[in-house]
Amino acid sequence: METEEDQSLTALLRDRFRLSTISIAQAQAKVNDLEVSETVVACVADLAFKYAEQLGKDLELFAQHAGRKSVNMEDVILAAHRNEHLAASLRSFGNELKAKEPQSERKRKKASKKEDKPRASTSVVDIPD
Amino acid sequence: MEVNSFDPDLIHSIFKLVWTRRALEREKNESADALDSEAGAGASKKSRPTSANGNALKLSCEFLRIFVTEAVQRAAAIAEAEDVSKIEATHLERILPQLLLDF
């Protein structure tokens, strides 16, 4: 049951989310030297937004199941369980995040696992410090 | 190399919206049950909304970024196979079932 306030907040978040999706989708289409139609982008944006809400619900359930109040990286990786490649990709991204923490002085391990799906290889994400 | 991605704060806001909504539901359900909560700590534990750790948010951003990327990439593959220069709704339609199964 959504209050009016809830509804306007949702609409605001959906709009901001749509903007980010547009930029990601267009950048990706460019990689393939293609254009992407507005309808498609709007569709993907709305779908991804619904998915984000669903993801939030799943993460909460996983954390609760583990007896925690706070969602952590393991929960997110678990949410990707349907697809091996996705889970592996997230796991290595997660390891890189952990390695960047000030406490661990470990060198970042280069993620050598590559997805064999045709996509821009971003399994090693170079986050500028 | 600059990677286009979602803003962790935006994702956090979306999650918080979902979680506070669910926390309110739980609170409502609990007051509806006239039962004395067996675990006294249980009542307050359940009504506080879930939170997320920073790395989990960054990972969720990556998750959603991959979702969008995969959708576009798979549709692009179909468009290329058809020798068309623009990704249209019909291309998206065809990859949608497998996309949803994979995520």
Automatic annotation (TrEMBL), chain A:
Q: Where is this region: Disordered?
A: 91-129
Keywords, comma-separated and alphabetical: DNA damage, DNA repair, DNA-binding
Record has DNA repair as a keyword? yes
Name a single GO cellular component.
FANCM-MHF complex
Among Gene3D superfamilies, the record links this protein to: Histone, subunit A
Q: Which GO terms describe its biological process?
A: DNA repair; replication fork processing; resolution of meiotic recombination intermediates
Q: Which Pfam families match?
A: CENP-S (PF15630)
Q: Where is the composition biased (Polar residues)?
A: 120-129
What molecular function terms (GO) are annotated for this protein?
chromatin binding; DNA binding; protein heterodimerization activity
Q: Per the record's keyword annotation, is DNA-binding included, yes or no?
A: yes
| Family of the protein in this entry | Belongs to the TAF9 family. CENP-S/MHF1 subfamily.
Q: What is this protein called?
A: Centromere protein S
What is the native source organism of this protein? Morus notabilis
- What phylogenetic lineage does the species belong to? Eukaryota, Viridiplantae, Streptophyta, Embryophyta, Tracheophyta
